[in-house]
């Protein structure tokens, strides 16, 4: 696999972006339209409904933006020489992925009579899809070019849409916060790509792979933004106000207990009792990932317990599992997405099975019962034939459905990641040279102070030209 | 008083956190539940009310989070060697204090038939209580260990709840923004603790007690976040929409005039007319503290005047009163909470008395009259016997009630602070050694660049071990 | 023109601020009042309306604050030695301008029976006016004293109010997001001032006019905050929910396509394909400026196209037009407001004319038709006599109205800027000496680390005293 910086960034990035954006603009002009409100306007009830609707959904829209662009952007800027790469490529990929998801989901779900009718929820749905691309990219951050990242998300989004449809249609998965559909999917897709793009020289820490106190501080600030708006993320798809209320409070509780667990365990692991910034930046959020799947169904105390468990497993993952997997199966997980999204996602899936199986005995059974009854309405679903062999959809069937949704998502995403990785390895796409992993100066006109002092600007240019000659 | 770093952080912090979090989880599982909406669901009106309710309260919930975790977190990160201590311990204490307040307030106010029924307002109330702990901790920031801070807030929260109940029950205090209940209380509680923990070596500026331009900049950014969401804080408890509207605009006006006053006075005080960053970071917010008590009752012009007065008194406090009190009564107020919360709180209390006494002659009397009439409904209140000696609750009684509420809060908080301070001084709890005041490297695994260059990592470890031997 | 730092900052700034704030407080006390809700309270419908109203408008109020104080404040902090000047003077001028706009707009629009009745929308309107002052100030940032900036905005606000009234009254301008009224106006006002304050020594880059990676990073973070809340800005004045919905989504789309265009074009322009941080910080927002004028009227595809075009023109402006104008007409545009507000504003105006002329053939014609019909209700408008010479207001008339509004705004603002510039040049006001352009240490008590190492504190003081002697 060639990792010299052979094809020029200047040739590929503008062309790819212009091409994709041009196609998207054309598609939007040809196919996408707003609902015609003039037809509706006589029906005042509909108009009113619409108003309430906008008041309810616009704040969530902004909250999700704060999470994606500020929260995740800052969080990914933890490397001192790659802070612009962290925040700016997140910004680029997010924008690309949202537009692309709007098109894919539009044709998949909302295409009617030659047109896709657009509502604000569609944009919100697209942003949830985009999250997947942003999480996955964390696995290969700093050692892939923006060209590769664009192709990466171009392939991931359609697969996400299909898998999301699959687990809802066939397994009636209960997963309000996207623990399986978003976190598990993006984690194993990203790890699949990373596996194929395995770079042996990264077995040792790369000299540029370092933080400084400012980048660590801003990254933690990003964590806090994600933390604050996570309750919105987990509650926005709730169908009743009670479910929404429970999802908000439970997510907050899981995050809160996860945070305290993070401080406790991190201090315990260090021989001098000091807190690790990496754990603080990541494990504080593990509760939000795990609780997502049952945020509307669990009791307050249960939410606390899940949060503790998630943070615990996340830190143990960083401390023991990641190094082990790095040795055994050559896993290279740059941002530790396996620890923040994979493991807490598994904890969440297991919790959902426990809640579903023992749930009906407690207060929150009502909504669960309603969900199961809702599922019974769709009794012709093929899944009943596979799992149920009976006429009703019981809690046990639902528990099996959760497990199956996890399994399918795991398989689909890992396989998709492998295939995507193979494509990204093709030498025709821009790869950063290993000397310029985690280095902003390859991609940005950065001020002098942040440049790697050993390489002057001209030396870099010279070096790149030389590399080109050797191909 | 022993201030060597004797008991190990690693022994105490994880144990304390795990213990407290474990107890909290158990309490939540045993006692805390959501309202059973299935019972309610036939009554559609109630459901509707609920919906409006969530739409109204969830945004405030997020605003308060932005204030606590981003605003206050950034603001407290002004020391260059203690920026993680500022933001991360604020994060830790906030989470702990919110959980603890939920339990204390739950048993105090909402315990019924063996269960505490949880609503989103309860969480919001708990966050107001937690604010108290965060403000108070400012007085001893950087010279107390997280173990001490946890115990600190564990003791402060119950006292806050009792005092809050006291001033409402017995003095019918008018105080929508918590000027007395939150700001005065937390200020004098914190100063009480600081008084007992008096450290003579801090009479001179500690070598590590310094800012740099980045920490000052981010701290000011925190001030701006607090500034933006303060109108939410002061208006969230308003009972009518008119009161809420006035509270929002008046708080904004008081902050705005306070900010301009800060620029003016700060420039006037410096011999070259330059603005002090400390004053900018703090006095810009003084208007918000002072106006809180009458945010719903005052006229726009009055709000402007109170804002000017509050900023003025805050800066004069920093410039003249704090150094005086430091000499005379050995006050050690690390973040200047006396200037930002104490003095503007007194200005606010006095303003409230003026407004109540002369209020009925102007437009905003209506709501005040209603409040006084509301108080008359609770005419069996013992306070009438003490203060009123009559059957009606007049403006004069209310003015006396305000003064009494201030006095009681002052006494209770200062006394509580003294007792808490005595406990925290016990040598069994982890104390930072004076060489490591204001130093992140004692508590965090920070990157090399931000370490105090004179002490290498190993030297620190050696030093700590040596300290331990001398006990 | 004298640019030594002759009149003392300490004499002028506090006096000016205290004077202005004092006058404002007096005006508010004498003239400004809240509506008397006690009169209204029997009419429950009105009360209800009010409630919905506050729920709808308060979030926008906070969003605009996040844009003004956090977004714009951070964005303007891109110079490493002038980061406090960027964020703090933005904070000062914003507060001053909002108060002043409340008074000017209050007397202009809401003065009745000796009183100005205050609503939350009035504050929002005042903030839109204040935006103008903040944008304009970008043209002379770092080379004007706060005293000059205060006078600057004191003169700009009334002219903005008059021009805004003019283009609405006489040209029925369609401009929901203020592309003409705010962006075009503030751009040419600012450039007018900058033209008069022309400083020959700035033809070469000033030694202090440099960024570092931290200031560039935080500035980009500011861009992201502006980006996130721009849909609020462009939609807040919408009169129907459909219009509001379209304005939100279209603004988001224009920003998104503009961002991708920025990455593409910026990479194309650089010989090594690297992204320029300046373009990223600015051109990412160009779509929001351009789409404002037709955010409620255009189709989704159209919004995408306008966004691409706006970002394209913005970058070409930075790359080619600004250097050309600097040489030819001595334009000195510190923050490039011509490229971010002027050129995209022109693109927006042209787009609005195209949409209005060809609009009626597509779906969004309904609202446009309604607007034209609304205009027909005001048929006695003198503009019909000038433009229309007929009894109905057609799309062609509206297109002419848009062009005329642009022309008038351009002329009024440029002329106003010239006059303001002449006043600011008067030697009686504090001017920074050219050695202290872009230098925080003239205005702030900054920590040692960020001082220009060549000048010690005492040297600076000495230098200032010497300057004073020479007058």
Automatic annotation (TrEMBL), chains A, B, C:
Protein name: Ammonium transporter AmtB-like domain-containing protein
Family: Belongs to the ammonium transporter (TC 2.A.49) family. Rh subfamily.
Native species: Pyxicephalus adspersus
Gene Ontology biological process: ammonium homeostasis
InterPro entries reported in the protein's UniProt record: Ammonium/urea_transptr (IPR029020), NH4_transpt_AmtB-like_dom (IPR024041), RhesusRHD (IPR002229)
UniProt topology in membrane: Multi-pass membrane protein
Cleavable signal peptide: none
UniProt GO cellular component terms: plasma membrane
Localization per Swiss-Prot or TrEMBL: Membrane
Keyword annotations from UniProtKB, A to Z: Membrane, Transmembrane, Transmembrane helix
Domain Ammonium transporter AmtB-like: 24-427
Principal location class: membrane
Domain of life: Eukaryota
């Amino acid at each position: 696999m060639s990792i010299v910086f052979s094809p020029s960034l200047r040739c590929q990035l503008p062309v790819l972006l212009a091409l994709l954006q041009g196609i998207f603009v054309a598609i939007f002009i040809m196919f996408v339209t707003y609902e015609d409100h003039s037809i509706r306007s006589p029906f005042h009830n509909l108009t009113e409904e619409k108003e309430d609707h906008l008041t309810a959904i616009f704040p969530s829209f902004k909250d999700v933006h704060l999470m994606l662009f500020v929260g995740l952007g800052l969080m990914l800027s933890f490397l001192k020489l790659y802070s612009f790469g962290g925040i700016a490529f997140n910004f680029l990929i997010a924008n690309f992925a949202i537009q692309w998801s709007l098109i894919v989901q539009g044709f998949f779900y909302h295409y009617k009579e030659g047109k896709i009718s657009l509502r604000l929820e569609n944009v919100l749905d697209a942003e949830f899809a985009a999250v997947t691309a942003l999480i996955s990219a964390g696995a290969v951050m700093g050692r892939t070019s923006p060209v590769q990242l664009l192709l990466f998300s171009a392939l991931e989004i359609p697969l996400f849409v299909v898998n999301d449809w699959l687990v809802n249609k066939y397994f009636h998965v209960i997963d309000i916060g996207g623990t399986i559909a978003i976190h598990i999917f993006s984690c194993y897709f990203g790890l699949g790509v990373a596996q194929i793009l395995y770079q042996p020289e990264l077995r040792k820490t790369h000299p540029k792979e370092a933080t400084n106190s400012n980048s660590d501080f801003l990254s933690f600030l990003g964590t806090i933004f994600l933390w604050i708006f996570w309750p919105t993320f987990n509650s926005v798809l709730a169908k009743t106000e009670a479910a929404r209320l429970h999802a908000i409070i439970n997510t907050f509780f899981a995050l809160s207990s996860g945070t305290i667990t993070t401080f406790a365990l991190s201090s315990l692991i260090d021989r001098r009792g000091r807190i690790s910034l990496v754990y603080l930046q990541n494990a504080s959020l593990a509760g939000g990932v795990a609780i997502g799947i049952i945020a509307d169904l669990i009791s307050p105390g249960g939410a606390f317990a899940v949060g503790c468990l998630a943070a615990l497993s996340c830190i143990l993952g960083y401390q023991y599992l990641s190094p082990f997997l790095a040795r055994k199966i050559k896993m290279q997980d740059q941002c530790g997405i396996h620890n923040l999204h994979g493991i807490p996602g598994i904890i969440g899936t297991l919790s959902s099975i426990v809640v579903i199986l023992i749930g009906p005995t407690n207060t929150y059974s009502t909504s669960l019962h309603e969900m199961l009854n809702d599922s019974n309405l769709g009794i012709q679903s093929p899944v009943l034939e596979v799992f149920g062999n009976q006429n009703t959809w019981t809690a046990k069937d639902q528990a099996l459905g959760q497990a199956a949704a996890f399994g399918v998502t795991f398989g689909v995403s890992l396989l998709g990641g492998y295939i995507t990785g193979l494509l990204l390895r093709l030498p025709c796409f821009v790869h950063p040279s290993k000397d310029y992993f985690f280095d902003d100066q390859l991609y940005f006109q950065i001020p002098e102070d942040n440049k790697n002092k050993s390489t002057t600007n001209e030396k870099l240019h010279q070096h790149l030209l030389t590399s080109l000659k050797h191909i």
